[in-house]
Amino acid sequence: MSFAHRHLLGIEPLSPQDIVTILDLAETYVDLNRQSAKHADVLAGLTQINMFFENSTRTQASFELAGKRLGADVMNMAMQASSIKKGETLIDTAMTLNAMHPDLLVVRHPHSGAVDLLAQKVNCAVLNAGDGKHEHPTQALLDALTIRRAKGRLHRLNIAICGDISHSRVARSNLILLGKMENRIRLIGPPTLMPSGIGEFGVEVYDDMREGLQDVDVVMMLRLQKERMDGGFIPSEREYYHRYGLDAEKLALAKPDAIVMHPGPMNRGVEIDGTLADDINRSVIQDQVEMGVAVRMAAMELLARNLAAEPRE
Amino acid sequence: MTDLLFTNARLIDPEAGTDAPGWLHVVDGRIAATGTAEAPAPEAGETLVDCGGMCLAPGIVDLGVKICEPGERHKESYRSAGQAAAAGGVTTIITRPDTAPAIDSPETLEFVTRRAQADAPVNVLPMAALTKGRQGREMTEIGFLMDAGAVAFTDCDHVVEDTKVLSRAFTYARSLGALVIGHPQDTGLSKGAAATSGKFASLRGLPGVSPMAERMGLDRDIALIEMTGARYHADQITTARALPALERAKANGLDITAGIDIHHLTLNEFDVADYRTFFKLKPPLRSEDDRQAVIEAVRSGLIDIICSMHTPQDEESKRLPFEEAASGAVGLETLLPAALRLYHSGDLSLPQLFRAMALNPAKRLGLGAGRLSTGAPADLVLFNPDTPFVLDRFQLKSKSKNTPFDGGRMQGRVLATYVAGEPVYRRD
């Protein structure tokens, strides 16, 4: 099992085989996590620092738990509150942390490319936990694992990604991953929330949700990111819900066994009907959270193995 | 003053559009004669320069150079910029007023003129702001500033949003025959943008601006020129969409010219790659289709002027996430080698390049330079168009080293630069 990457900065640099490698290893952690004794000490002695320059509860908790279950020493740093307020640059912050010899650095940052920049300046392995509107690779990997387990495969599926594509790093990473695994991807959303140049992505674009959901296997909803809206992308929440909110009636157009996904946190009644989100026959939203921990454990283990193989200065 | 006789040269004459072997005679800092036949014998006391078949062209007139005095001398001073210019074959620098504070009063203008005279080995002509503090609210003392030596008026990349203010400034400038330089950009669309919208920007998750923003800005400015009769130059036309508007305005007889910086002619949006901030420019790098279209426009003469848009930025302002990083690149020393890429690729001939880099900017500003004709100032550049080298940014003479060509393979190097017949640079 080889995984020739120093960092996990995005899905873009990964090959389909890399993706399968991570998912296969993650499967073993799904099993482990369901046991009462959840420890595997593959990261024992290593230090993991979670640096979140943007608010996060779920992703940070997931990474923290993943590290702890693998035996790493985990430290969380809420970067919004600290040095950037004092005017320190990202690179200086990185250099400071680097001097503490972490082995794994998990970073979320509000600017696209910031995690790449940081990765150039440190000696440890960097995991991107979301950078601006660019990528969120572990989210795409956990979504892939969820789909693979629910559908029995990760190729030749019709997958609809719906909502605010333009502001979503989750959509970007998923688009790239699912494309690499040879699925048919449909993007559904109002044209004001579609990224520019979308015609060149090799996807089908729909602004009518009813049309777009016809016969899909997977419906992936996105959060309508109110905090990202400069204003004026959509007329109102209620019109958005009417046209793009997922409810039982719209879902009936998809295949009868289609699954419903959401990266969370959900806005019930804005992009998804609350009852539908809780429907255990259709919604795999809780599975996604579970897969998140397993996928992050797998990704960190693979990167740590590469670190161990490196000569130490 | 020593008189000079250049022999065995390859004369690049943008006025005649010729690229031919010949000689050139300089007397009292001016070009006295040129010829293609056998060179005359040097007179007593004259220096003979055997060019060895290398190119001799009019020195570059670089319209729109930022020198960071006053305010940020650690980024670029008149001394460092002057040396960079000399090493790059630029014999006349036209400076931008986007300093801190802006050059918007005769007093500041006199300060920079003095600094330039004291420190820069090449000609320096200043531009002044069109509105006070480049705020877009009140016009500057255009008359006094012209008396103090301002050759054009521009708020640089600050677009004057209030059309009433701009129309009045245009009208007033017209009465004085002043040249106004605009930055065509619709500010509503371009706000917050770090890249040109499209597949690349979307994949990188960077906020994008539609190329249409340039066309809208140009359309607005053209309407105001038509209304006021102002003399106008668009600093950078970088998109295919803006070209038909420019063409129509010229066909309608408006007093309009347009420029482009060398980076938009030689690089495209994909060069940004993994968020390389040295490639962050304003306007952002465009698609390859746009690049091809603007090269064609330079060839046809629709775009008149190529400049470096020299914008020094220190390391700190570039070592940031792409969206936060400062825009701009230094270009005084790389303008000619980069422009020669277009020559080696067969896109533009040497006379076409020097028409855009020397003759046209000189003409637009009413300068006698930029040509090889008798009586013109002997501002000359001698260069080997073929010398290959890999650019090392730390070898640049500019104080700031923010060039996108760092590590790039270049072809063509300046051998010597002359201002009014005096050597200001010689490559050992």
From TrEMBL, chain A:
GO terms for biological process: 'de novo' pyrimidine nucleobase biosynthetic process; 'de novo' UMP biosynthetic process; amino acid metabolic process. Keywords: Pyrimidine biosynthesis, Transferase. PROSITE patterns: CARBAMOYLTRANSFERASE. It is an enzyme of class 2 (transferase). Pathway: Pyrimidine metabolism; UMP biosynthesis via de novo pathway; (S)-dihydroorotate from bicarbonate: step 2/3. GO terms for cellular component: cytosol. Residues 6-148 form the Aspartate/ornithine carbamoyltransferase carbamoyl-P binding domain. Residues 157-302 form the Aspartate/ornithine carbamoyltransferase Asp/Orn-binding domain. Signal peptide: none annotated. One of its GO terms (molecular function) is amino acid binding. Carbamoyl phosphate binds at R58, T59, R108, H136, Q139, G264, P265. L-aspartate binds at K86, R169, R223. Its EC number is 2.1.3.2. It comes from the Bacteria. It catalyses: carbamoyl phosphate + L-aspartate = N-carbamoyl-L-aspartate + phosphate + H(+). Belongs to the aspartate/ornithine carbamoyltransferase superfamily. ATCase family. Heterododecamer (2C3:3R2) of six catalytic PyrB chains organized as two trimers (C3), and six regulatory PyrI chains organized as three dimers (R2). Catalyzes the condensation of carbamoyl phosphate and aspartate to form carbamoyl aspartate and inorganic phosphate, the committed step in the de novo pyrimidine nucleotide biosynthesis pathway. NCBIfam families: asp_carb_tr, PRK00856.1. This is Aspartate carbamoyltransferase. The lineage of its organism: Bacteria, Pseudomonadati, Pseudomonadota, Alphaproteobacteria, Rhodobacterales. The gene is pyrB.
Automatic annotation (TrEMBL), chain B:
The keyword Protein transport does not apply. InterPro entries: Amidohydro_3, DHOase, DHOase/Allantoinase_Hydrolase, DHOase_cat, Metal-dep_hydrolase_composite, Metal_Hydrolase. One of its GO terms (cellular component) is cytoplasm. Keywords: Pyrimidine biosynthesis, Zinc. One of its GO terms (molecular function) is dihydroorotase activity. The keyword Zinc applies. GO terms for biological process: purine nucleobase catabolic process; pyrimidine nucleotide biosynthetic process. It holds the Pfam family DHOase. Residues 345-425 form the Amidohydrolase domain. Residues 55-239 form the Dihydroorotase catalytic domain. NCBIfam families: pyrC_multi. This is Dihydroorotase. It comes from Pseudodonghicola xiamenensis. The lineage of its organism: Bacteria, Pseudomonadati, Pseudomonadota, Alphaproteobacteria, Rhodobacterales.
